[in-house]
Amino acid sequence: MSASAAAAAPTVAVPIKGGKRKKLILIGAAVLLVLLLAGAATAFWLKSRAAHATEDAGDEEVTAQLKAAAKPDPAHPPTFLPLDIFVVNLADRDADRYAQVGLTLEVDNAAFAEQMKTYMPAIRNAILMILAHKTSQELLERSGKEQLAAEILRETVRPLGITIAAAPKAAPAPADGSLTEVPSKKTKAAAQAVHNPVRHVHFSNFIIQ
User: Fold this and answer.
1) Residue 167 reports pLDDT greater than 80
2) Rounded to an integer, what distance in angstroms lies between the CA atom of residue 33 and that of residue 26?
3) For residues 203 and 105, is the Cβ–Cβ distance under 8 A?
4) What is the 3-state secondary structure (H, E, C) of 25-59?
5) pTM for the whole structure
6) DSSP designation for 183
7) Burial of 145 (0-12, 13-18, 19+ CB in 10 A)
8) What is the phi/psi pair of residue 182, to 5°?
9) What DSSP designation does 158 have?
10) What does the pLDDT look like over 81-133, one tens digit per residue?
């Protein structure tokens, strides 16, 4: 066959077999899926980072507010409200034990102290209920006294319609050594976000017999 005849011969297209075409489609779909997953992961990471930044900013703002509220103001000294002595049987099971406890509440101002006097029967009842559920062993420890003061801080304002949430406690570490969820700074700060007009509980007398 001459060169001109060879050039004039039509070109015949070789069709791609069905298996190869299906393979190319699957590869293209896989690449597209990978790209979509990578984009979704990037968007989630950016959103999570922005959320953490907002949370940290909120934590700092709440902490600053709490520090400002707790900072003593020499121009407005606190008012001290002494309470009558509490004498209560304790919750010991092996023996009859009782506690004699004297308390002085440090509050924001004299006006609130006068308001508390109006609710004093309910306040004393709340404190007595707390003491009656304590054991002598708990109250002999410093940590037990600190826990008692924290509970009294919350319960003395409850009759006045002020609800103070207890600070969250970290769960004890499991025996298998796995990690436990630790309360976030925001959760801890939220537990103290409501202002408590009772600043401190001072013990003026503490006898356990």
Assistant:
1) no
2) 10
3) no
4) HHHHHHHHHHHHHHHHHHHHHHHHHHHHHHHHHHH
5) 0.56
6) P
7) middle
8) -100, 130
9) G
10) 999 999 999 999 999 999 999 999 999 999 999 999 999 999 999 999 999 99
